[in-house]
Amino acid sequence: MALLGLRIANVSVSFTGLPVPVLSLPALEIAPGERVAVTGPSGSGKSTLVNVITGLERPSSGMVLWGEIDIARLPEGKRDRWRAENIGLVMQDFHLFAGLSALDNVLLPVRLRMKGAARFAERAHALMNRVGLSRHDQPVATMSRGEMQRVAVARALLRQPGVVIADEPTASLDPESGAAVAELLLELAVEEGTTLLVVSHDERLVARMDRRIRLSAGRVAVDPNVEAAP
Ligand SMILES: Nc1ncnc2c1ncn2[C@@H]1O[C@H](COP(=O)(O)OP(=O)(O)OP(=O)(O)O)[C@@H](O)[C@H]1O
């Protein structure tokens, strides 16, 4: 899958009854392969940004260009397909099926979406070894939280996405597991050649990213690529 960069122009997200947009981004660019942290206080718009750039939510206005494709213009079904092909998502609370094995969780998205998903089995095993999981048939319900997040990381990378987006990937882990998962995400972004965007309060993880963007009240308050934020 092609390495993708992001170009946002004039994006705003508004909700009925709220006087100001919850997200307002005149311009934001992320270069292909860049590793970017997004921080900001609660309610500053971080999850809304993730939703918009993954196509989970459509902005009220503006362009969300990944490579040449403006995902804000895609109808929902196409956006879902585009996301499945291009974005690996890692969420704070894993989004795993507890009743399934680790391997079945890694393979589930391709099994649900694609014919010939069996061809991913070899890569699934290799990725699970890479993230440090040796018991591929272990039921997720019996895993530690750190192991669960490793399953989620392997699942996110299965289709060789051009972009990995992680929303508070270490927030529900103990410090040691969190540090290990952070390390994995950074190493794998390089090995797999993906753009990486991480929303996090984890200072150690944030410090290791190439660029740190801070949101405040739905706007970019700090971005080293912009001389003076509005
Ligand atoms: N569907 C919605 N309807 C109305 N307001 C919403 C909706 N979704 C989000 N908001 C508001 O938008 C603002 C930004 O929310 P968002 O979840 O993006 O913040 P956040 O920075 O991710 O916060 P946290 O760190 O607490 O998760 C908040 O004030 C929230 O109440």
TrEMBL record:
Top-rank taxon, per record: Bacteria
One Pfam assignment: ABC_tran
Keywords, ordered alphabetically: ATP-binding, Nucleotide-binding
PROSITE patterns named among the record's database cross-references: ABC_TRANSPORTER_2
Keyword ATP-binding: yes
Keyword ATP-binding on entry: yes
Listed GO MF terms: ATP binding
Cited InterPro entries: AAA+_ATPase, ABC_transporter-like_ATP-bd, ABC_transpr_LolD-like, P-loop_NTPase
Span of domain ABC transporter: 6-229
Protein name: ABC transport system ATP-binding protein
Species annotation: Kaistia dalseonensis
